[in-house]
């Protein structure tokens, strides 16, 4: 696999050799226990009886990594069909940690992994509105929530940038479409160069979605922006551009998660200064925790706004 396209990150990765080394290895497969249907102890005991080796994750409650051959296709296990666990990339578990309140809007929700994780975290209270622009991909959300038995998820089908402003939410999640470079350990095509026009369109979409997320958060509510790419244009530079034009001063939430290694968001790049609050954002490089690449920025809207 060629990593030439990643050269532009040499200046911002903390350990270039470890980064490339991690990218050359297959991605470990991670899952979490659906405690609505089975306890962690019972599921782990079922796995043990069948010789399925897993390693519980210290930092994320009820999450685990497959260590044996099942890692190739955990979705074929009976326990998956029974809704006893959900498969989700380890780094992608982070945004749900920052959800607050019980009314949550997930603007770009398909296939529904973060929606499901958030809905379970609400313990049956509240509502997660799972929105996606792709009708086709929305079916995957319904399959996931049905299989897991989640009853606090409703779905909507809008372009997130034009989401109706009638209701505001405690937390709005903008897990935007991106170039997905950080998923290359699972999907090597993610490192193929993108056509500049598509990148431009993508940037416009990401900005419009983040702006809308800021409008849809209640006063005192929270916005969570995430991508699975390393690209500064889709991460810090984009967030910087949007927050500078907000009619309120964002209250930044520190994204460090105990037990999960990460780097702070960049506050400058190639001579451009970004808002200082971005140091509270989180960059996850694949060698940090043997995961994919990820970016999360979280901020609150002031109460009086
Ligand atoms: C990164 S994926 C979301 C993954 C999902 N949050 C999860 O954890 O399973 C991005 C999603 O954004 C959707 N999308 C792209 N453009 C959109 C738009 N303008 N409005 C709403 N959804 C959009 C895509 O269909 C895709 O499902």
Automatic annotation (TrEMBL):
<feature type="binding site">
    <location>
        <position position="159"/>
    </location>
    <ligand>
        <name>S-adenosyl-L-methionine</name>
    </ligand>
</feature>
<keyword id="KW-0489">Methyltransferase</keyword>
<dbReference type="InterPro" id="IPR023267">
    <property type="entry name" value="RCMT"/>
</dbReference>
<dbReference type="Pfam" id="PF01189">
    <property type="entry name" value="Methyltr_RsmB-F"/>
</dbReference>
<feature type="domain" description="SAM-dependent MTase RsmB/NOP-type">
    <location>
        <begin position="19"/>
        <end position="302"/>
    </location>
</feature>
<feature type="active site" description="Nucleophile">
    <location>
        <position position="228"/>
    </location>
</feature>
<protein>
    <submittedName>
        <fullName>RsmB/NOP family class I SAM-dependent RNA methyltransferase</fullName>
    </submittedName>
</protein>
<dbReference type="GO" id="GO:0003723">
    <property type="term" value="F:RNA binding"/>
</dbReference>
<keyword id="KW-0694">RNA-binding</keyword>
<comment type="similarity">
    <text>Belongs to the class I-like SAM-binding methyltransferase superfamily. RsmB/NOP family.</text>
</comment>
<keyword id="KW-0949">S-adenosyl-L-methionine</keyword>
<keyword id="KW-0808">Transferase</keyword>
<dbReference type="InterPro" id="IPR029063">
    <property type="entry name" value="SAM-dependent_MTases_sf"/>
</dbReference>
<dbReference type="GO" id="GO:0016428">
    <property type="term" value="F:tRNA (cytidine-5-)-methyltransferase activity"/>
</dbReference>
<dbReference type="InterPro" id="IPR001678">
    <property type="entry name" value="MeTrfase_RsmB-F_NOP2_dom"/>
</dbReference>
<dbReference type="InterPro" id="IPR049560">
    <property type="entry name" value="MeTrfase_RsmB-F_NOP2_cat"/>
</dbReference>
<feature type="binding site">
    <location>
        <position position="132"/>
    </location>
    <ligand>
        <name>S-adenosyl-L-methionine</name>
    </ligand>
</feature>
<feature type="binding site">
    <location>
        <begin position="108"/>
        <end position="114"/>
    </location>
    <ligand>
        <name>S-adenosyl-L-methionine</name>
    </ligand>
</feature>
<feature type="binding site">
    <location>
        <position position="175"/>
    </location>
    <ligand>
        <name>S-adenosyl-L-methionine</name>
    </ligand>
</feature>
<dbReference type="GO" id="GO:0030488">
    <property type="term" value="P:tRNA methylation"/>
</dbReference>
<dbReference type="InterPro" id="IPR054728">
    <property type="entry name" value="RsmB-like_ferredoxin"/>
</dbReference>
<dbReference type="Pfam" id="PF22458">
    <property type="entry name" value="RsmF-B_ferredox"/>
</dbReference>
């Amino acid at each position: 696999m060629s990593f030439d396209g990643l050269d532009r990150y040499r200046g911002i990765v903390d350990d270039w050799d470890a980064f490339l080394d991690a990218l050359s290895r297959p991605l470990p497969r991670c899952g979490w226990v659906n405690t609505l249907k089975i306890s962690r102890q019972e599921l782990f005991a079922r796995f043990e009886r069948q010789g399925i080796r897993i390693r519980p994750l210290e930092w994320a409650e009820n999450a685990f990594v497959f260590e044996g051959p099942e890692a190739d296709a955990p979705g074929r296990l009976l326990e998956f069909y029974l809704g006893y666990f959900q498969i989700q990339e380890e780094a992608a578990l982070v945004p749900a940690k920052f959800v607050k309140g019980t009314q949550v809007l997930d603007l770009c929700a398909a296939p529904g992994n973060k929606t499901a994780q958030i809905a379970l975290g609400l313990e049956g209270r509240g509502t997660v509105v799972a929105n996606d622009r792709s009708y086709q991909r929305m079916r995957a959300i319904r399959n996931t929530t049905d299989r897991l038995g989640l009853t606090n998820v409703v779905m909507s089908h809008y372009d997130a940038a034009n989401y109706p402003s009638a209701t505001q939410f405690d937390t709005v999640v903008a897990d935007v479409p991106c170039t997905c470079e950080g998923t290359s350990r699972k999907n090597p095509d993610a490192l193929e160069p993108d056509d500049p026009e598509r990148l431009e369109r993508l940037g416009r979409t990401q900005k419009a979605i983040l702006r809308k997320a800021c409008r849809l958060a209640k006063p005192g509510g929270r916005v969570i922006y995430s991508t699975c790419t390393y690209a500064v244009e889709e991460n810090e530079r984009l967030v910087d551009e949007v927050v500078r034009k907000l009619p309120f001063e964002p209250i930044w939430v520190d994204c460090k998660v105990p037990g999960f290694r990460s780097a702070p968001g960049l506050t400058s790049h190639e001579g451009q200064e970004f808002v200082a609050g971005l140091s509270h954002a989180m960059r996850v490089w694949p060698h940090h925790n043997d995961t994919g690449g990820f970016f999360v920025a979280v901020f609150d809207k002031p109460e009086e706004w």
